[in-house]
Amino acid sequence: METVKTKKKSRLGVIAAVAAPVALALLFLLLSPLRGFANFVTVWFSRPVKALLGTVFGVIPLSVMELEYIAAFLFILIWNIRTVALAVRREDGLRLALRRTGVFLLVIAYLLVFFLWCFAIDYRSDSFSERSGLEAGPVETEDLYVVTKYFVQSAAQYAKEVKRDGDLHWAEELDGYLGSSKYIYENLNSEFPFLSARSRVPKKMYLTSRISSWMGFTGVYFPFSGESNINIESPGPFIPQTICHELAHQKGVYAEQEANFVGIAAAIASGDPVYVYSGLLAGSVHLANALAAADAKLWRELVPLMSDEMRTDWNDNHAYWQQFEGKVEEVSSKVYDGYLKAQGQELGIRSYGACVDLLVEYYADMAHAGGTAE
Q1: Contact 164, 309 (CB under 8 A)
Q2: Where along the chain do its domains lie?
Q3: Given pLDDT bands bounded at 50, 70 and 90, which one contains residue 78?
Q4: Rounded CA gap, 125 and 40, in Å?
C-alpha cells in the first residue's frame, strides 16, 4: 500500500517533471537575446550535441529523420488509440486518459525545449557575415549586372562538363557525387577556417522527397538527428548545391540566406565540375531573379549567353517546380516564413534572395576583372 510519504514524493516528481521544461523555456526567452550567452551555448552545447547525434546516427545509411517521422506517427496513433480505449472500457478511464494526455503533452514539451536549446539558440549567435567580415550591403545595379553576367557565362562553360543524355538533360548519378561531398568544403575552409567542422554525408530522402517538393523544399537539416537530408526528386543540376547548402548548416551557418551563399561559394571553390556547375547555376538563378526585378532589360541582354545545356537545365527546373505551385506550397511558405521571422530573420522567406548581396560582394572583383570561374 502506498504510504503518504511515497505519495508526496510522487507528487513532487510530477511537479519537477512539469516545471523543468517550463523553466527552461522561460530561461530561453529571457537569455537567448543576449548575444554573448547565445554564442556560448551554441559553441559549447548546441553544436557539440548535434555533432554527436550526427556521428551516432551517421552509421545508419537511411535517413533517421524519416525513420523518426514514422516512429512518431506510429507512437501518436497507438498512444491515442490506447488512451481512448482505456477511457471507454475502464471505470477510472477518464482519469487514466487525462493522465496519459498529460504524459503525451509533457513529451512534446521536452522535445520543444530540446529544439529551443539545440537549434533555435543558434539563430541568436554570431552570423556568417559577422564571423567572416563579409558584409551584405546595398547592391548597385551595375555590379549586379556584371556579377550575373560572370555567373551566366561561367555556368554556360561548365554546363558542357557534366554528363548528359542525348537531349542534353542532366545525367549525373547522385551516388557518384554524394559520397565526395565530405571533401567539398576543403578549399573554402582555408579562406573561412570557422567552417572547418566535419562534414557528414547527407542522407537521401526516399519517403518524403515528394512531400518536400509539394512544400517547396530541396533539403532539410534535422536537429533531432544532426543530419542533412536531400530531396532526391528535385532537379538534378541543383542537388549538388543543395548538398553544400545543407552542409553549411552542419558547419554552423544557420540563416538561410547565408547558407545559400556559403553553399554556392563552396560548390564553386571545390574544383569538382559537377559541384562547380551546380553552384554557378544556382547562383545564376538567384542573381537573374534580382537583376530581372531591378532592370528587366539588362537581364534580357544576358539571356543569349546561356548555352543550350544550361538552358535545358533552367527549363527543366522551372517545369518541375511549376507542377507543385498551389495551396500546399503557399501554406508551407507562409508557415516557414513565420518560422524564419520568429528566429530573427526579418526578411522571412525572402531571405533566400538576400544571398544576392553576399554573392555580389564576394564575386564583384572577379567579375569586373573579366573571364569566367575556374
Answers
A1: yes
A2: 4-124, 128-369
A3: very high
A4: 8
pTM for the full predicted model: 0.89
Q: Which of 234, 227, 217 has the alpha carbon at shortest distance from 249?
A: 227
Q: Give the span between the Cα atoms of 315 and 313, in whole angstroms.
A: 5
Show the cell assigned to 107. Answer: 513529451
| pLDDT 10s digits, 129-188 | 999 998 777 888 899 999 999 999 999 999 999 999 999 999 999 999 999 999 999 999
What backbone torsions phi and psi does residue 233 show, to the nearest 5 degrees?
-95, -10
Looking up cell 518541375 gives 320
Q: 96-118, pLDDT tens digit by residue?
A: 888 888 999 999 999 999 999 99
Distance from C-alpha of 276 to C-alpha of 100, rounded to nearest angstrom: 53
- 3-class secondary-structure state, position 194: helix
**Pairing label, strands 219-222, 227-231:** antiparallel
Query: Can you read off the three cell numbers belonging to residue 178?
Result: 554524394
Residues 6+ apart with CB under 8 A from 374: none
User: Within 13 Å of residue 30, how many CA atoms lie on the same side as its CB?
Assistant: 6
Rg of the chain (C-alpha set): 24
